[in-house]
Amino acid sequence: MSVVDARSGSAAETEALGAIIGACLRAGDLVSLAGPLGSGKTVLVRGLAVGLGLEPVGVRSPTFVFHHVYGRPARLHHIDLYRLGPGADISFLDVESLVADAPLAVEWGGYADLEPWRPLTITIEPAAGDERSIRLSGDHPALAAVARR
């Protein structure tokens, strides 16, 4: 497993980083996002959408609905496990079908066992002011793309 560390100084930079990652995503990819409330997980997903050629304006947190689909046909699935809590049973989400259809971004991914899908894990930690420390880990081409930026 590889690790790449990045920094962001603003929401726009976080979204731009997400666009670099999104350009590397394909059906079958699962992105697990971690970080405290307000750290920028949904902002990064907006960037994923941009990188996949989608309009970011409709990307919003799926905290209360669990699942958003962006694009027709689906180009990105976005789920949020925050309300399910640690140890979440996500069998009702049929992750296998979602991931086969389009890339899947999972906010609060650490709340469930996602290892069967070998996720690209992105951890966002607030730093000073609007700065964020962003760590990517896994075996995915996006790590090399972020390292080259």
Summarize this entry quickly:
It contains four helices and seven strands; from the N terminus they run E-H-E-H-E-E-H-E-E-E-H. The chain is of the alpha/beta class and 149 residues long.
Textual characterization of the structure:
With 149 residues, this protein is an alpha/beta fold. It has a single domain, classed as P-loop containing nucleotide triphosphate hydrolases (Rossmann fold, 3-Layer(aba) Sandwich), CATH 3.40.50.300. The chain has helices spanning 11-22, 41-51, 95-101, 141-148, and strands at 2-8, 30-34, 67-70, 76-80, 104-107, 120-126, 132-138. It has a 7-stranded mixed β-sheet with strand order 1-7-6-2-5-4-3, sandwiched between helices. The longest helix has 12 residues, at 11-22. The protein is globular.
List the helices and strands and how they pair.
Blueprint: E1 2-8, H1 11-22, E2 30-34, H2 41-51, E3 67-70, E4 76-80, H3 95-101, E5 104-107, E6 120-126, E7 132-138, H4 141-148
Parallel strand pairs: 2-5, 2-6, 4-5
Antiparallel strand pairs: 1-7, 3-4, 6-7
Secondary-structure element order, N to C? EHEHEEHEEEH
User: Percent of residues in beta strands?
Assistant: 25-35%
- Please give the number of β-strands: 7
CATH architecture: 3-Layer(aba) Sandwich
Contiguous low-pLDDT stretches (5 residues minimum) are none
* Count of alpha and pi helical runs: 4
CATH superfamily: P-loop containing nucleotide triphosphate hydrolases
Radius of gyration over C-alpha positions, nearest whole angstrom:
14 Å
Q: Give the class-level CATH name.
A: Alpha Beta
Walk across the major sheet and give the strand order.
1-7-6-2-5-4-3
